[in-house]
Design a protein that fits this description.
The chain is mostly helical. It has 2 domains: 70 residues, no CATH class; 59 residues, 434 Repressor (Amino-terminal Domain), CATH 1.10.260.40. The protein is 50% helix and 9% strand. It is built from 7 helices and 3 strands, in the order ββααβααααα. The chain has a 3-stranded antiparallel sheet. A hairpin with a 6-residue loop joins strand 1 and strand 2. Helix 3 runs antiparallel to helix 7 and helix 5 crosses helix 6. The longest helix is centred in the C-terminal third of the chain and has 13 residues. The chain starts with a strand and ends in an 11-residue tail after the last helix. The C terminus is likely disordered.
């Protein structure tokens, strides 16, 4: 039974649908006011991935619960894990900072991520959650993480 979680860009109220089939779930998603024209299941999956976490298409309740638990896990991510995640995502420090919600100009964002990667500054809880959502969206969760 597939499940869809959709959080609009305002991030206020999640919509959660569970249906008997992928076709039924697609039909439900098409009814949403803020949904684009969803031609097929692949388009729906791509759209859900573009929304704020934990939005997504999940095949089972267990899969959705695992993703939610992973995203809510508040344990610190080590500087090395942050640097490795950025490298695996193929992002510059400034681009990576933007992706996890760290603002400022490009130089400020670059410097902030550099300081985080060398352990001088810790990633704040909001950026940590955003990083976890980014890793989930790219199917890059740390397999050693107990919440994975």
């Amino acid at each position: 039974m597939p499940i869809a979680i959709a959080i609009d860009t305002g991030g206020i109220i999640p919509v959660i649908f569970q249906c008997d089939s992928a076709a039924d779930l697609l039909a439900k998603l098409r009814e949403m006011v803020f949904a684009p024209d969803l031609q097929d299941v692949d388009a729906a999956r791509a759209w859900l991935t573009s929304l704020p976490g934990p939005s997504g298409w999940y095949e089972t309740t267990g899969e959705a619960q695992a993703v939610l638990a992973y995203m809510q896990h508040e344990a610190d991510i080590t500087p090395t894990q942050i640097a490795e995640a950025r490298a695996r995502l193929g992002r510059s420090r400034a681009s990576f900072a933007t992706a996890i919600g760290i603002g400022g100009n490009a130089n400020t964002r670059h410097k902030r991520i550099f300081e985080i990667e060398i352990g001088k500054v810790q990633l704040n809880p909001s950026a940590t959650r955003a990083l976890r959502a980014l890793l989930v969206a790219h199917d890059m969760r740390d397999k050693k993480d107990p919440q994975s």
